[in-house]
Design a protein that fits this description.
Blueprint (H helix, E strand, L loop, with lengths): L23 E5 L11 E6 L7 E10 L4 E8 L8 E8 L21 E6 L1
Length: 118
């Protein structure tokens, strides 16, 4: 695991997933929590979803390449053998795919795009 000393993007807050995942009600971590591979979090999911809780373990946190990965290891939900990898990268505004003619482009107001591959 590579962990830079610079403050990484917002998604690197493994202990506060509710800041970037809107279906999470709350998250708790142990008293002596240290953000490193193997650390765990307990997540409470908002009502209406087919889940109540989730226990998750951090597998990878790489600030230099803007990558985070975790595995769900327990909880009350329907997911089994679930592993998520999230990346964040810059979106260049005004550059798009397509045949020209003013189309394409895109990008959020903050210049970041998140991608969650499960």
């Amino acid at each position: 695991m590579r962990r830079s000393t610079s403050s990484g993007p917002f998604f690197c807050r493994f202990d506060k997933p509710q800041t970037y995942k809107h279906f999470i009600k709350s998250c708790t971590v142990g008293e002596n929590f240290k953000m490193e591979v193997g650390c765990k979090r307990d997540v409470n999911v908002i009502s209406g979803l087919p889940a109540a809780t989730s226990t998750e373990q951090l597998d990878l946190l790489d600030d230099d390449n803007h990558v985070m990965a975790f595995t769900i290891i327990g909880g009350e939900h329907r997911l089994r053998n679930y592993h998520a990898v999230t990346t964040v990268h810059e979106v260049v505004t005004g550059v798009g795919w397509g045949g020209g003619g003013g189309g394409g482009g895109g990008g959020g107001g903050d210049g970041l795009k998140g991608e969650n591959r499960s």
